[in-house]
Batch of 2 targets.
Target 1
Amino acid sequence: MEPLLSAVGIRKVFPGVVALDGVSFDVRRGEVHGLLGENGAGKSTLIAILYGVYMPDGGEIYINGRRTLIKSPRHAAGLGISVISQHFALVDTLTVEENLKLSGIDVETAVKIGRELGVEIPLDKYVGELAVGEKQRVEIVKALARNSEILLMDEPTALLSPKEVKALLSIVRRLAEMGKAVVFVTHKIREAVEAADRITVLRRGRRVGTYERPFDEGVLLEAMFQGVVQRRVSKSSSIGDVIYRAEDLSGERVRRATVEVRRGELVAVLGVAGNGQEELMALLSGFKKPRGGRLIINGEDVTGRPFSEFLRRGVAYLPEDRGRALAKELSVLDNFKIRCIQDCMEKLAKAKEVLDIDFPSPFTRAAALSGGNQQKLLLARELWLVKPYVLVASYPTRGLDVDTAERFYALVKSAVKGGAVVSMEDVEEAVERADRIYVISRGEIAASFTPPFDVDEIAEAMTT
Amino acid sequence: MRLVQRQSPSPLHYATAFLGSLATVILIVFALTGDLAVTARALATVDAGYLFRVFVVIGVVSLSGVVSYRAGLWNIGQEGQAIVGALAAISADNAAGAVMSAALAAAGWTLIPVALRVALGVNEAVTTFLMSLAAVSAARYFVEGPLKDPAKKGFIATVEAPYMEPVLAAVLLAGVLAGVVLLYRTRVGLTMRLLSSGEEVVRYAGKQPKLYIAATLGLSGILAGIGGAVEIMTRDAGRYMTLQQVSTGFGLYGISAAWLGGLHPLGATAASLYIAWLYQVAVNLKVAGLPALVANALVGTAMAWGLAGYVMYKYKVVWR
């Protein structure tokens, strides 16, 4: 059967990184094609290209056999392509019916499609009251009501409960039966195996292979993590006592997480984005108050104390969202002064030199700095200047080039006096850098590992 | 057309806004008078003492705006806070006591929007504006009641506020200006400015955002209150309030000066002098027989230019 959509040799380069390197991929009518890969594999970039968010730097896209240049998401929608992602285009304060009307969709048609799909559309409910799975179903119905033939589902299960995942997978199968072409992006092997007719595995921007039923989970696992080998790297030689411990820590998404950090240790929290690690980091740093559980620093219970108390005890927090930590409208110097008390101008000049931060003047607005330089400024202030006892960092190396990432780890080693807990996306980075690895999935600590690390075991914990 | 944030904003855009405002004013005045000579006279006639008095008042109120807007807080109730300050000054025995009373009364008056914002998250722009309307009614009550001067037979007015020498008023403005400039060099001032980037950043800095919101709005209210007190106390004559003349409009003028001055204490003070001159021009036009409301119109255009300056400072227009 001729593919409905096919991408040939797609290449996309972002500054400093090749996100997609000649990836070919196709999906047929009435087929669910799983796109499998760990973080950074290039899945979301490929979806963004197919939906017209990015223009590819190389390669061609064919729809119904005709070469097509997808210029924008609006153009993609016109070509019958829809995206179902974790971010819904719904207004919380309106009812489902009002939302449908707002999108120019005939309500009766939507209800009829819902019925065909085996989905009930709660027309009178406010979107804000709906569960994530329900919102997602509304989005799917919206896509179908727009006569979409190709549905790109980008990590659609990331925010769903296990029960909702099951319901979604059966909807996905039903969509294929209705003759739609579905691209199902996931990092979870079992979901891909359950839903897909074919599976393409991406790894670091390259296509490893496309697999047909019956699938061998072992082969898929190997394809996803091929080349990840534990290199001999310097681990902390003197791991000491437990200096920081979180017991049964719970928040909105995080459930009963227990994490401990020993003196001299770098602990990695590994998981796929959207599994609660950002909240876990905020809870561990004391920036967010937990709903349950305890936080103990050096044997003293500090649960629920204000963030200032955590700062006083030497906890530094690098949040994923830099907007939390940097006042972007203020100058670089003002931002530095958030932690600097005296001789700030001199210290900033020194930090600029040590960390190679590029800014024209201390009075430049922080917003004018590139993302990488903002991150370096943050590192300069929270690590180089403060020399914390415990570092809690959320994806600190994301978006950094290899050299800067290396510099970050060197800084952690030299500046952090106690231990560090760092969330990461990349298994290889965790295996190389960490003295202990926790895997987080759906807000829970699914597993913990100590050296020697078994990459297969870690990968399995992440993908189940 | 869309706006794109500038990488390196230049204060020169405020100069452009100033020139734009000046050109607009000249055009308006010429359109109203229709005569070049009359226009020139309206623009050039200045009563130095009067101009100075208005400048000092607007200067103090503009700093109220700077304190609030630099922190990303929208106190637009300077008019009401100035009225309350003026009432407090009327009830005082001497100038120093009047300034103290005005500060205290305005702080108390601002406490309501502060409490609503801090406890319930109610937008302070709405509450401070509504409190201005409430201030007019409250002032009328005081004019007719507790502060009424029984000596003024057949004329409903308050007792007179103590007199403040213009020099003293200038010293007060200089003190407030120096205070705000110095405040911004302290950690407290830095934290207040951090508020403009969101409460989370303040919390990240280890401070309590609610405390700083309360302090900033409170300080802003106090400065507007002092401005109101200075206004009534520096009048040559008629240092009282009547039922018809409760609101003076200096609250709006102060806000305009704050924006036109780029929300910088020194810039706002310089802009206050310009706004005071506009006020003088409006008075000149009134003397020439044009409506009194022209003053508000002129200051309104200056405010629009001030906001335009702020937008031009931060963004560039991309025409595609």
Target 2
Amino acid sequence: MSKAKPRAAGGDSLRSELEEPLLTTAAEERVSVATQWQLMWWRFRRHRLAMISGAVIIAFYLVAAFADFLAYADPHKTEAFRSLIAPQPIHFFDEGRFSPHVFALIGKRDPRTFKRVYEPDPTRKVPLRFFAEGYQYKFLGLFKTNRHFIGVEGGNAEELIFLLGTDQLGRDLWSRMMVACRLSLLIGLAGVTLSLVLGVLLGGISGLYGGAIDTLIQRVIEILRSIPTIPLWMGLAAAMPRDWGVVQVYFAITVILSLIGWTDLARVVRGRFLALREEDFVLAAELAGVGQMRIILRHMAPSFLSHIIAATTLALPNMIISETALSFLGLGLRPPAVSWGVLLQDAQNIQTVALSPWLLSAAIPVVIVILAFNFLGDGLRDAADPYG
Amino acid sequence: MLYNGVIIRMVVPLLEVRNLQRFFPIRRGLLRRVVGQVRAVDDISFQINKGETLSLVGESGCGKTTTARCILRALKPTAGEVLFQTAAGDVVDTAGLPKAALAPFRHQMQMIFQDPFSSLNPRMTVFDIIAEPLLASGVRSRGQRRQRVERLLELVRLRPEFMQRYPHAFSGGQRQRIGIARALALNPSLIVADEPVSALDVSVQAQILNLMLELQDELGLTYLFVAHDLSVVKHISDRVAVMYVGKIVEIAETDRLFKAPKHPYTEALLSAVPKPDPRLRSERIVLQGEVADPAHPPGGCYFHPRCAHAIERCRTETPALEEVQPGHQVACHRARELTLKGVGARR
């Protein structure tokens, strides 16, 4: 059929020409074809604090992976003659030459208090060697070796160097802190993974189906969140059988921590689903006959994946600090497991804090890691929606 | 149909809407009990013939978009029929069919969205956006999809080289063209355009409207054009339906409706259209009061509290949509006695 309709002003040609090519520079063209992840990376890179934090976190996980290599003394070996030694300063230069060394210690008994005291002996220098031999361990769980980052030549490092001092039972604190990284950082990852699975699954169902299921899940979340966490954890931890091994307790603690942790993620996921369900591009896909599964995977998931990564990063420090708090209270990991919380258990009374403050040094990595995760999470959250 | 041995092809409209209703329940309290209904679309009927453009106009909240979405079955109508003539010539009631049974002809009705920003997935390239309906309809070969997308981009006057870009690299008007290309991907017969130009600059509006007119000529498309701006409607539509609080109050051919409106509400809308001539002092009819609440509509004619011509009967009796002249239907008790002022008489 032919119709003569008046054309709106502005379109004077009968058949409008192809759109002019967009005048773009190479840099703009690069942005035009950049994927979501590229845009996010470009934006994230501008967040300096988050970049630094990311590097710090990678460094911490490297420490966890190579903990035994960085330690120089067996973290479990006790020795009554070396209890509560103060941190030993390292001297880097010897008569103008670079030659890191520490002074050997002489253990004496105070004639008045009968307490053991250690005094450096400036005449006996103990030179430090890199890649020296020490106690035997399995490198990355693959093969046995006895090489360590630092050690002493021809002597036993355990008897000679105490970079961060020792605890009451004479175990070297530096070595224990290296090894503690492993459990403390991994429990965060394991707990968050579990929360993530629960949160995405339940939040997704809640947001996608709505109705009665949604109401039920939301009420469960509200009830779970209304329970004060410390008493809940204490109750659950107290219910754990005393004869469980380190590994069993470890997994039980992970489960307990993620029991609360998933609720935040579930809310984030539900919110994103509810918002995305109303998006026009989702309706367009539906009208085009695109299947439900493809709509979820292709249209919805990419838009909230970045938010989930950010939310996960912000959930990790909570897990780590919860583990530390539980273990500090004696309800989480128990010796012989070594975690930051277990280390801090030794610093529970004012006497030890006053007389041997180095026992508190395990709090330093906790603070650094938590801050780094928070900054990283902030950076990721800002970068998460490059189209916002 | 067979009549006296002669096959007579009955003229079936492409789309016929009969007594369409869509209510939204109002839920309150802990148990989410239904305490009322918002009558978003309340018993409307109209038809669109093949190749025609029908515009649906009205203030925001009057149920235009809900009507459009019910026709596309993005929303399930509460009651009523939506009779659609498929490409095979059958007439199906899309309102009554279960979603699964709808699939075979769903692609024959497509939508152009109001917001060119939220209607394109920012995480997909232009190629992926336009090719998605093709993929969903089973075009497996990437080469074929590519060819079709190139053709579609040319159809909407965009350069095929832009295919690998993401939507954020385009302006509003260009994005709307991408949205049109996506709607055309599956060769639909009916296009429901939900305020396709109201988010665009005036200069770009004209380009998009002209493009839509050209495409209609080239591809024989039928449009249901939802708008709130009568000056836009005038250029594109064959017929116009005016909605007020979920009901159609007047429906007529475009020229007739503009020149000789029969409903006081239409007159008021027309008086608000800006006139290009600054010497013309517009006599704008400013309606008193608020738009009626579709959850608690007033009795009688919904428009009577704001109507200058209301009489006692208007307060008690709801007017039905009646034909006052061939092709001109009005829902007003006084349609025959009132002389209302239109626009465009000087054209």
